[in-house]
Amino acid sequence: MGLCYTEIMAVSEQIKTATETPSRKRWVIYGSIGITFGVFDYFFQQTVSQHSSLIARVVVIYGIWLIPLIPIALHEARVSNSIVKSALASALTWSVAIVSYYFYMAVELIIIGKDSRPELQFSNHQDPYYWSNIGQIFSGDVSGGIVEWIALAVIGGGLIGFTIGFVYIRFIAPHLGKTEN
């Protein structure tokens, strides 16, 4: 619970700094948060998958994806007073996080190196099969993973952002007395 609260507060603080920024800058910040979260999630999933029960792992691995989404959707709904923009901001953040996750996986394999896949390290680029192996990583693992999860990112992120924006604009903002534009 402490990790989730800490992560939500960190994302919330990043978003607060964008409160008075123009719309384009907010969207760049949402994309940047997606990039950062995608790399964070890469390490997080590796750590969590080695611990606890199956049900706990599933809840934590998928639940963590709400951490950047909730404050972004709330912020966009508050600033733009738009349910659609809240949905789009959420879909963008999750989509960028998916792409970031899989590209970081490739960076780790090629540049940083993994003991289990030494043939993919750039230091082996003289090997006659090196470039075909790298091509297979990008055409299989990277693009395959992105294609597999991007629909969930767009549809799921959009639906969650839409729901959060709807609840905020229809039920919470009227009780606050105003919405910010």
The radius of gyration is 19 Å
SSE pattern: HHHHHH
- Overall shape: elongated
Instruction: Report, as a whole number of angstroms, the end-to-end distance.
Output: 33 Å
pLDDT averaged residue by residue: 87
- Uncertain stretches: none
Proportion of residues in β-strands:
under 5%
User: What characterizes the major β-sheet?
Assistant: none
Structural class of the secondary elements? mainly alpha
Helix percentage:
over 70%
Number of strands: 0
How many H/I helices? 6
Structural notes for this entry:
The structure is a single chain. By secondary structure, the protein is an all-alpha fold. It is 79% helix and 0% strand. The chain contains six helices and no strands. It has helices at 2-16, 23-48, 54-63, 66-80, 83-112, 130-176. Helix 1 (2-16) runs parallel beside helix 4 (66-80), helix 2 packs across helix 5 and helix 5 packs antiparallel against helix 6 (130-176). The chain is elongated.
What would you say about this model in short?
This protein has six helices and no strands. With 181 residues, the protein is mainly α. α1 (2-16) packs parallel to α4, α2 (23-48) crosses α5 (83-112) and α5 runs antiparallel to α6.
